Amino acid sequence: MDRHLQWGVLGTSTIAKNAVIPAIQQSERGEVLAIASRSKEKAEALANELDIARAYGSYEELIADPDIEAVYIPLPNHMHKEWTIKAAQAGKHVLCEKPAALNADEAAEMIEACQQHGVLFAEAIMYRYHPKHRRVQEIIASGEIGTVRALHGNFTCNTADDKDNVRFKREMGGGSLFDLGVYPISAARMYLGQEPEAVTVHALFSEEHDGVDMMASGLVEFPNSVALTFDCGMWASGRAEMEILGTDGRIELPKVFGWENSDIPPQIIVHTDSVSREERVSVSNSYVLQVETFAAAVLEGEALPFSPQNTIQNMRVIDACLESARTRQRIQLVD
């Protein structure tokens, strides 16, 4: 039987409890060996609930465990850098929740530490592992919709009443661009296979929510006069969609970033002048695909599909978006 990658989880967050820990447990190549919290009681309670063998009352104890090979970090954004570097120094491979860091410089520092200590680093932008996105790239490459002229993306939800949410704490890396904007921005970069040249963003900075951006709307300029227009928000009606517009047709992606089950609507809708068609690629759990891919990279030496450099580049775009929103100016990413 294939060997399992032994995971430790730093923190008891909702995303860890409801999505990533179950995904590791459902995967063929992973086992959650330990979980840590700053509260031993919280760690033990979740360990009992999810049938995890070891519970630690500090993150330090977990990364000192010699049996753990990889850690998943779902901590608040401002803690990603510290614990990625400490995990790397302890020889643990790192899957870090998005956004990887508070800025591109931090991300570069984290990745350098991982490379220095010979461990792998991946940013947990889970949706990218779903095969429907490869299919979208194939449709674009086939020329069916002609030359791509524009992309439109959105990701919104309304959690504004949850005033204690860490996503609404400025010092902890809160805000909609960090939490949700990373999705349409990373998707546009992935579909186009290019890096943006400039961004212009307008945002709602809410004093009720520690001054974080609760809503942002932006224009991201790519080479060849192609642009992404996007909006993201945590104080708006919920949706998550992408559209790719070409000279001869367009691709619609309803529920592009979210959870899926057997009752899903069409994953991909292609419209051309002559016909519209729907495609369903597979009903796959993106979280499981993410941890399987990571395990294959650690255990078999397979290349990760999204490089650490990709993480730094995505953070550079988010940095520019925040700067644009704060200064009300267009920010160039290339000289």
TrEMBL record:
Keywords: Oxidoreductase
InterPro entries recorded: Gfo/Idh/MocA-like_OxRdtase_N, Gfo/Idh/MocA_domain, GFO_IDH_MocA-like_dom, NAD(P)-bd_dom_sf
GO molecular function: nucleotide binding; oxidoreductase activity
Highest taxon listed in the record's lineage: Bacteria
PANTHER family the record matches: OXIDOREDUCTASES (PTHR22604), TRANS-1,2-DIHYDROBENZENE-1,2-DIOL DEHYDROGENASE (PTHR22604:SF105)
Gfo/Idh/MocA-like oxidoreductase N-terminal domain ranges (all copies): 6-122
Domain GFO/IDH/MocA-like oxidoreductase intervals: 133-252
Organism: Paenibacillus xylanivorans
Family: Belongs to the Gfo/Idh/MocA family.
UniProt xrefs under Gene3D superfamilies: Dihydrodipicolinate Reductase, domain 2 (3.30.360.10), NAD(P)-binding Rossmann-like Domain (3.40.50.720)
Protein name as annotated: Oxidoreductase
